[in-house]
Amino acid sequence: MTRNKLKEAAMRLFGEKGYDGTALSEIAKEVGVKTPAIYAFYENKEDLFMTVFREAMDAYNSYVQELSEGREKLGVRESLYGILNRQYEFYRECPEASKIVLRYMVFPPSFLKDTIEEAFLHSDQLLTKLVGAWMVRGMEEGVIREQKVQPLVDSFLNVMDGLSIQYFYYSSKEVYERKLNHVFETFWNGVRS
């Protein structure tokens, strides 16, 4: 129970205040324990941070990949749009995890850069496989014109990354959804047969 409360408080505080701006004592105080109690569960601040960062990345990956389950009946266009929309749903439903993932993907603490990059590469591989399968299917069905798959996947992942930043720029759901729809239509018009 205490371990989970520590992770929840740490995720929120690291996301809001940054790694350097968050003290272990602050996390402990929010949970209602003394700072030394943290060491019963985590080796140090870095260990606690990497635990919550990895869990946030895993939650994001699982959430986006759940989309692929039972999507065989949907078309390629709907499935690719669904990936972008699923990412948007994750941001709305899991704001703390979203904030920590985005903040540290863009601005990792220098001493954790390699570890965070490793976690990101794992996520990138999972998304590459998922998106690549839809691109191949699209070419097989004739809805995406024949071309190399990797440039398509890279372009789509860059659309996802751009939308990630856009989500945190705009508090208006309407503005964000307009941008999501416009960028997807532009992407789709560029790749379809």
From TrEMBL:
Pfam families: TetR_N. Keywords: DNA-binding. Gene3D superfamilies: Homeodomain-like, Tetracycline Repressor, domain 2. Residues 1-60 form the HTH tetR-type domain. SUPFAM superfamilies: Homeodomain-like (SSF46689), Tetracyclin repressor-like, C-terminal domain (SSF48498). The keyword Metal-binding does not apply. It comes from the Bacteria. This is TetR family transcriptional regulator. It comes from Paenibacillus cookii.
